[in-house]
Amino acid sequence: MAERIAQALRTRGTLVAEAGTGVGKTFAYLVPLLLSGQRALVSTATKSLQDQLFLRDLPRLADALRVPARLALLKGRASYLCRWRLQQAQTGGQLPDRFALRALNRVALWAQGTHSGDIAEIEGLDERSPVIPLVTSTRENCLGAECPEFRNCHVMQARREAMAADLVVVNHHLFFADMALRDSGVAELLPTVDAAVFDEAHQLVEAGVQFLGTTLATGVALELGRDLLALGLQHARGLEPWSDLQAALERATRELRLSAAGPLREVRGTLKLRWEERSQELAAPLQVLAEAARAAADAAARVAEAAPDFPRLEQRARSLALLAGRFVRDAPTDQVRWIDLTPQQARLVESPLDIREMLTQQREASPKAWIFTSATLGDDDALSWFTASTGLEDAERLRVGSPFDYPSHARVWVPTELPLPNAVGHPAAVGALAARCAAALGGRTFVLTTTLRVLPLVAEALQAQAAALGRELTVLVQGSEPRRALLQRYGDGRGCVLVGSASFWEGIDMPGDALQCVLIDKLPFPPPNDPLVEARVRQLRAQGRNPFDAYFVAEAAISLQQGAGRLIRTETDRGLLVICDPRVQKMGYGKRLLAALPPMGSIADEPAAVDWLAMLAKGH
Cβ contacts of residue 107 below 8 Å, gap of 6+? Predict the structure, then answer.
């Protein structure tokens, strides 16, 4: 894999490389990159993977290879302290409670000594803290060169370091947000590098679709109102009716959120709603919001001389008014619209269906090496699941299997006697089975579900069955605590079962015997009523293709590979994968899905599965 990447770097070619667990794909691209002496951009899926690359892998390799490379880390502006906004928050910020005040004081103390300004340095600060938006900037509220703290700006410092570096580590969200908004420095950086590498490339399309689109978020509108009121009272008190303007924005925004939710009163996680379901109800609140935003913009314009913040406020309000107007009109034919609903806010999104056009333009714009790699990019040699949605059909391809001894160390079992996934009793049956498996193993078990809705049902049945067996099991359920806290409590897995949904399917590394049994509740087909899924189905039908084979089965194969990937992380790991969906054995597409998994041995029934787990429990 390293040789093929070195070749692509020499010829400025495009390579799509799938590398099974244990290949060491990170080293396979970092070693040739460092040795080539070329300037490079490396993008990965998350901020935590970015930190791992920058703080651990890259320094170790650069040291071992004796390569004096200048390395830089670039995140989105919301990851960096804004000194000006920290001062504003300390003097006039509206803090919700004493915990927020305590967090603000911690930030202020840390701010005195930090070099990078990266908020991730602050130990124990919850990433959902209400203080973070108060002490970081957004594209809308940044004062740019007019900021009194511009010379000390951490965002500008990070960008300068990135432009001077030999190798810059970014993340997919930042990459695409910058392609759309040109706000974080990647757009200036990309033409200057000789190579662009995308790790965890299976997440590229989703990140691209999310960020290449146009979004109207109610949270952004509320923040505009809060900033208008705070700055108006601070710099232009009595000159405009700031409280009334803020109240009008807030009323319009809350009405928009209520109209987006419709009859839904309680929302857990993120819900995707069809645009057609709500578009008529949204038209009036959108127009009211546009009027409130225009009134705010006019007021900010009238006091523009009072402080440098007001021209920027006017700009933000005019943009919001234009955005609200855009969503009143019909979407262009090549775009899909939907509503993301969370407990906190509604996001109206208009987006392309894939990233083909954008990626093709980028590849044509500047000749360089393009490398895309992941453990899961397709279930065929052409890796068509990935290449078709990215316009990379012309790329060189490489598939490298895992070096692990799956036939000896891992087993897969499909319990055919379980109810079908659409049956009422299915979640309870999965929970009871998970308890029997975990009892044989002494914990060390994950249950991965395809929806949040069934988590409590599975967990309840699991606890009841464990009690009936007289076994003490600690059942940890996603949502009861932050993800990191749950994983810390899970620890070495002894006596523990973790029940989780989407965010636990990938990016979790539990090597050794901490995790030896993974149960997947049902085949992870895309939800058919998801607006993006519906739009892709229409597109495939228009091309004369079968959406079930070309899309649903292909997506399920990728997700299954990701879920199964939690099980075997090192050469000595051993474990059992249980797919609690009888359709795998009963339907024709089951063979294709099983073939997409690593070559595990198979188990026929529950007694054999329990025997295997009991043997693992003894450390054999």
Answer: 81, 86, 119, 122, 125, 131, 135
Residue 16 to residue 373: CA distance in whole angstroms: 6
b/e map of 217-244 (b: 16 or more CB within 10 Å)?
bbebbbbbbbbbbbbbeeebeeebebee
Q: Give the neighbor-by-neighbor strand order of the sheet with 346-351.
A: 214-217, 346-351, 336-341, 271-274
Q: Give per-residue pLDDT as tens, 348-384.
A: 999 888 889 889 988 998 889 999 999 999 988 999 9
Summarised one tens digit per residue, pLDDT across range 463-498 is 999 999 999 999 999 988 888 889 899 989 999 999
Domain 2-70+165-211+353-400, CATH: 3.40.50.300
> 272 pairs with which residues across the strands?
340
> What is the rounded CA–CA span in Å between residue 349 and residue 271?
13
Question: What is the Cα 346 distance to its own chain's centre?
Answer: 18
Separation in Å, CA 351 to CA 202, 328, 335, 355? 19, 16, 5, 10
Q: What is the DSSP string of 469-503?
A: TT---EEEETTSS-HHHHHHHHTT-BTEEEEE-GG
Domain boundaries, the chain: 2-70+165-211+353-400, 78-152, 214-351, 406-617
Examine the pLDDT at 181 and tell me if it is beyond 70.
Answer: no
Q: Quick one: tokens of 220?
A: 């952004």
User: For the chain, what is the largest distance between any 2 Cα atoms, rounded to a whole number of angstroms?
Assistant: 79
Q: How many Å apart are CA 383 and CA 364, to the nearest integer?
A: 22
Name the token pair of 184.
Answer: 């974080």
Question: Cα(197)–Cα(43) distance, rounded to whole angstroms?
Answer: 6
CATH of 214-351, one of 1.10.10, 1.20.1440, 3.40.210, 1.20.1530: 1.20.1440
- Whether the CB-CB separation of 57 and 30 falls below 8 Å is answered with yes
Separation between Cα atoms, residue 597 and residue 375, nearest integer Å? 11
Q: Mind listing the pLDDT tens digit for each residue in 272-318? A: 888 988 999 999 999 999 999 999 999 999 999 998 889 999 999 99
The C-alpha atoms of residue 330 and residue 279 are separated, in whole angstroms, by 9
- Strand segments, DSSP code E, in 436-573 are 445-448, 474-477, 496-500, 517-520
CA distance 552 to 545: 12
Spatial CB neighbours of 253, under 8 Å, sequence gap ≥ 6: 218, 221, 222, 225, 289
Q: List, in sequence order, every residue forming a beta bridge with 496; answer none if it has no partner.
A: 474
Whole-number Å distance between alpha carbons of 336 and 350: 6
Comparing 2-70+165-211+353-400 with 406-617, is the CATH topology the same?
yes
CATH topology classification for 406-617: Rossmann fold (3.40.50)
292 within 8 A of 323, measured Cβ to Cβ: no
| Sign of the C-alpha dihedral computed for residues 290, 293, 295 and 297 taken in this order | negative
Cβ-based neighbours of 34, under 8 Å, separated by 6 or more:
61, 62, 65, 67, 69, 167
Structure tokens of 33? 């990159």
